[in-house]
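Record 1 of the preview.
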Amino acid sequence: MTTHEILTAARGARPALQQADTDTKNAALLAMADRLWADRAAILTANVQDMEAARGRISDVMLDRLALTEDRVAGMAEGMRQVAALPDPVGKVLRTVERPNGITIEKRSVPMGVVAIIYESRPNVTSDAAALALKSGNICVLRGGKDAFRSANAIVEALREGLEQAGLPRETVSLIQDTTRQSATDLMTAVGLVDLLIPRGGAGLIRSCVENALVPCIQTGTGICHVYVDRDADLDMALDIIENAKTSRPSVCNAEEVCLVHRDIAEKFLPLLKKRLAADRAARGLRPVELRLDKAAAAVIDGTPAGEADFDTEFLDYILAVGVVDSADAAAAHISAHSTGHSDCIVTANARTAEAFITLVDSAAVYWNVSTRFTDGGEFGLGCEMGISTQKLHARGPMGLEELCSYKYVVTGNGQVR
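->
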């Protein structure tokens, strides 16, 4: 089917989903999760084909994003079950106003309609997006990248079997079959067919959608995430947070890309940082982190001199830009100049410094003594997420069920006229 045909069919499935109650949607989610697990052999076979085709063309870190295992498929299915257990946002009364003339005005949560998601090489996004869209009453149209097409197609086929089992149209979840740029353009310009477009991927994809979309578009963010180590920080805590934020999964958007260190502790802390991220990891047979140092940091430890763009780069790799600053305010100013507004952290024992930093740093998630890796729908209690919004209108941070809803006013009376 062409992209236009898929969108038209998806639009046609709206009435059935609009009339589905919470029990029906939950039954569908559970059936979809069961089919996902039951069809894991076909899904993993498709993923092996994707991996073989991508190997040598993309980095090992990006291959990790693409890879599926039985454990990851089980996690995807569990994520769908967690979404089924969450409260249904559809129809929720957000506000009620009783007017003096007897009119009652209710502000009710309603689905967006048809939500299209353009994403790249993470197959788990397929099931996460489908689950969140279904529970929030939205039709889901997915456009994955060519590297993950076979995996995504196998996942969607399993999900559609679950939908049919629960009595909902297969077109509730669809996968665009064209992986060329034209299909992305078709979604960006599908006025009247797409109610919301969500790009989830690299800076180029997001920029293209924001600049070219004629349909409403949520700007999900690349993650140039910072950890600032204050002069009042517990240094062991800081090392634990930085290692986790940088190395637990460097290919994701909530991984740390920049470390800022207060000048007063730089001579003590930076050698400890280099030992933890480089020597200690190498001794354990793990890949060491390359440190790209500004002039002040390079005066304390050896490393790669930071280039002009290194503090503005989402490396998605075992690379960390390191800089020295004079104060928490200076750290906040640096973050303001270089952050993408995703997730930024301060490590300090000083509550006053922390609160000032939290006030000054205008990011979707600001952390105090916590790894940035927690910016995730599951970790925030949302089940999973459609993406991390770095804009301020409508949705910000992990996009869960409530963020996939709009609202309308329902006005009830007994014959009032104006």
